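Box 3.1 A note on notation
Throughout this textbook, protein chains are presented in two layers. The first layer is the amino acid sequence; the second is a token string describing backbone geometry. Keep the layers aligned when reading.
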Amino acid sequence: MYNYKKTCLITDQDIHLFYNEEKNKIMSSINEVKSENLYIFPFIKYAWMPVLLIIVSLSLILFIKPITGDDDRQIFKNNFHLVSQKLSDIVDHASINDLSKHRTNQMKELSYSKFIDRQSLLDAYLKGETNIVYDDYLEQLLTTKDFIEDIEDIVLNSSNWQLDEDIIPDENIDVSFRFLLSSDDYIVIKKRSGQEYSTIKLGIESNQLIYYDIHYSYDFSSDFINNEASLNFNYFHFIEDDQAVYINSLTDLFTLRYTSIIDGSQFTISRGNQVVEGLESSDGYSFYSYDSEALVTRYFQVVDEVIVSETFDVYSNHGLLYRYEDLDYSSDLTYLYVNIVPALGWDYLCIEDTDDQLEGVYLEDGSPLFTGHIYYTYTPKYGYAAFKQTIEKNDFSDDHFKLTEYGMNLSEEKASIEYLDSIRISNFEQAKEDFFVEGIDFFTEDLKSELYNYIDKDLLIEFNAESNSGEDIVTGDVEAFENEIFDFEQAFSLKGHLVMESDVTIAVYDGDHLIQSQVNSQHTKYDILDMYLERRTFSGQLFGTQEIIMAYEGQLVSFTNDDGPVTDFEIVSQSASPQIFMEYLMTEYPELDLLDGVNHIESQGQGVYKVTLNDDFFGDEINMDLVFNQMGIDGFSEAMIEAIYTFNQNHQSYDVVLTITGLKTIEGAYDVTYIETTNVSIESFIKKNPLESLIFFRLPQTRDGIIFDSNINQLNVYYINEGESWMRLYLEEGVYSSSIYGSSNSNLSYVLIDENGQIIDDSNYRFEIGASGYYYYKFNSSVKQRIDTRISENPYPKNQDITMDQSNDLIELYSQLETDTYNLFTNIDDKERVLRLTLNPINQDFLVINELDALGDYINDYFFENYVNVVYILIPENTRVDFEISGMYQGQFSFAYDYLYPPVSEESDVRYEVDNLDDFPHAIMNEYVTKVRYDFSIEEEGYYKLDKNMITFGLYLDLKMALYDSEGTRLRISDHAIYETLQAGNYYIEFYFIEADSGLLILMPTVNR
């Protein structure tokens, strides 16, 4: 007996498992709406300016029949019981094999040998059966059965619920249910868990279970929140003993899987810009189907209505007979894997190279018929073995199926070119006819709407209220208000620059008592003539996102970063002019009528207006009831909306305070107020250039997306996405060395190419440039990751040893070439200590010291840069630590070193007088020194950030910080950083442990203005 041991050729379930993984990824994306802090952007209206909106995630409104009381509640309970029993019957009567393949791989392994004889494989092969439809609907029903059982006690045994009312079990307000009856008495169950929503609908007709299920969220990046345009969903429809339909509809990825339970066939279609292998940026289709009558699977891909690749698996009654692959229609090569198990003319396999034989297929006397890699599967009920044939398409013949070239003979009717041609999809039009579900045109241009309209009507979302008949009539001081706006527009048109600063405060009250409030802000700056837009968001005092659109090298480029130093850039227009800049803004933010949603305008005095509003103010495409509902807030439709506009009389600015009152939390326990304050002013401002900031760029995924050259002879740190990324260099003729590392190196590959696409360097350390010009690194990664790149002129070696044998000293070194290497050694002391290395200022570059173990192997590294010049390294007692400086830094440099000894007895107070806010002394803390105080002075009133950096050795130490004025009055306390407006005067700040514990900490306070 033998064992399944190697990675085998993809067989029966592989493609099905792939699609299941894709479904899981899609479901994961759909359910990523979290109940964390939600940014709330202001709504600003002004002529061409955008409506700025953040949180939009909506709830379901069902087309459900009117509630009539206890009779309908009893109908719901009765039908719930019937559906629950039906679900149990279907799941319980499903075969163990049907369900087990969704749970675990229960393949029984056979004992292992390096040789497998043909008869053993053939015996296993003849026991096999071909049944490869992925019955994933069974797992869906199993999950629903578990869910129904979870709420069964509430429905059948509790009297404390009514139809169409929220039910909150166990006083957990993050989870709620709502039970309803559809017009045909199907039961409908809505579930909310935090910010995740789902709805199921079940009923029984002609003794068949009919089942619908939807999980959904909204695409917040879309310009408008509007029914199918922004809805992302996973939808499932099942009819017992008939069919199952899956639909996944995301922003740019759509999948449809149809399973016929009647005849056991199945197909899957995917469409999007990432479904065609090797062409991530091309919109295309992938098709998979299984024909249960012909026992054939077909997998092919289409781009621009042209088939670009195809794969066929042809089965006998016992398993896979052969696989044919044409992975690239433009290539002259095709691939064939034939199962040799039912073929005659061979005797055994060698599945691993041995001292006597290579891996391959052999006759009994040891003569090889084929040597090379064998793909095989060997279990008690499945036998498969094949090797890869690479064939030029013009030479392809039936002999390749029969294996005559290898001295074997496969006598199977399906193993022929004639049969292969008979199962091929000839063109895209034929695919449209074969891959068809009634009610869905998957090939329509507006696929998102098509899939949306397929959803059962009881699950559809009613986005927009019925249109009002006639136009709203605005009353009051309309003309005076419009004149103020017109005067401001005229002033703006003369200067072309604008600053808008907005804050939104949502506060929750229990009566008059404030329970919680959150402030979210957005600052936006425009300069039309300079083609510059800057938009930043904040939540409280925490920076959120930043976007800058500006002209660069004759192009219009967008730079964005989200809560961190990594910046993405995108060329939004190949040419830049004020007109193009304005057209781009108008495309992103369409023009709105200022008086939409205004009921009444009342002058409050010179330049001040009180404006009464309705929900049309927020735009026709946005259902604000659902917006607030997704935020956990109810009552918007009955709320009072008012705004106070205050215009500056020189027409250079105006303020708006928008207030929404009458809101409540969704469970009705607390009152909510929404206040938005906005200042709009015509003023100049300092513009930022992202290319000059201390940030890390994410490289573009196309060569055409490059906007700048990377530097040589210095470190360049970038971030890359999954797939391709591109970097450009200008290199003079000469010899260079490359140092390129990723945070996940096993998933990173790269090549250096010239302008014509010729490979210059394939991941080598050194390479030679024959002619000066532009060169490109093309990276390929299977994951998102950081990469560190350094391309330098070729170095020559030099070595020097240095021992740090004094308590402190200054080391001066000179590195001329990249391979100059310095080896440093500490002395040995019988006490634990901390080595402090302080690098004297260097130029715009960096220096790295590598820490080595006793065998000279790398264990850690320490980076010095022009703005990070001190590191601390723990030296254990009676230990020598070795370091290496390898010469990526060129030029003169020096650093001081000294040894710090941790306190070994209690010191009640460690106190420093700080003369310079830019130079707070570092302090060493442990269980003997648990509090450190810094006295300092503020010379100039301003907004200050007091922060701390720490290096901890051993256990993590919880360190708090508290700010005091000169009288000892505590102004602020924090676990992290303190933000405070300080007047000129004397202050002190204390850092202290909450609980003293073993461990060691280096404290490095900072103050920023």
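The chain is about 15% helix and 45% strand. Residues 375 and 463 are 54 Å apart (CA to CA).
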